Amino acid sequence: MAVLHKLILLGGMLLLCLGQAQAAGTEQEDSQAARALLEKALAYYHDNGDKAFAAFSRQGEFVDKDRYVFVVDTKGVMLASGGPSSALIGRDVSDVLGPDVQKAFKEALKVPEANGIQQAEYRWQNWSDGKVERKRVYYQRIGERILAVGYYLPRASAEQAMALLNEAATDLTKDEKGTLTAINSLKGGYLQDDLYVFVVDLDTQRYVAHGTNLRLINTDFNKIKDPEGKPVGEPILALIARQDHGEYAYRWKNPVTGKVEDKHAYLKKVGHFLVAVGYYSP
């Protein structure tokens, strides 16, 4: 039985590693495709100058799935876009963009043209699902123009989930009431894209904090099941009763995509609380 248990654990670890490798591969492919599209746009702009804006702003060779070329000038005016920002063409967008986009734009203006292609991250609406998501952009300044192509980053990683769990556990130890209040405020750093924290009081076995669904507060965690009726709370409580930390895989709704997906949760016992953060597999 001991040998069988070890083989099952090993198999689970291999599947987890494979899933992480596939996610990394997807991001690498997106990154390469975005950069290649920008290089193609730069070459086209070199040959056609500002006449290239018409090609950049229509559905065609400069739009690849949710990746598209956009151009702003150094004053912040949108000059071309093959995506939803085409509605902003001709407008000064420097004042209507979020702080992270403004920061990225200001940094872009500081980079000499000779430095070649640069990259930045900010949040932007994904036109495929309507969600505001993290986006990585490759860009290059050509004179008074900044040409760019971005792609939306995949789901948060296992490393990010573990980091958020450790942060929440540490904060809960220092300030129990304040941390629970912050988690339930659905902000305060405990909600990061599709990552969120939930906390269960092990004495009462009821939720005391949840990063996305306040309707679960004070409900019996022991009775929680996945959308297909498979127990989730009961096996997690049984696991954490035997050890101070652990992991558990189940199916749950992703707050970003709105779909039921495979989820891998990291668990930690902090005093009489169970603290958990899970990441969604691709």
TrEMBL record:
It comes from the Bacteria. Residues 23-106, 169-234 form the Single Cache domain. It comes from Pseudomonas fluorescens. SMART domains: Cache_2. This is Single Cache domain-containing protein. Its main location: membrane. It is a multi-pass membrane protein. Pfam families: dCache_2. It is found in: Cell membrane. One of its GO terms (cellular component) is plasma membrane. Residues 1-23 form the signal peptide. Keywords: Cell membrane, Membrane, Signal, Transmembrane, Transmembrane helix.
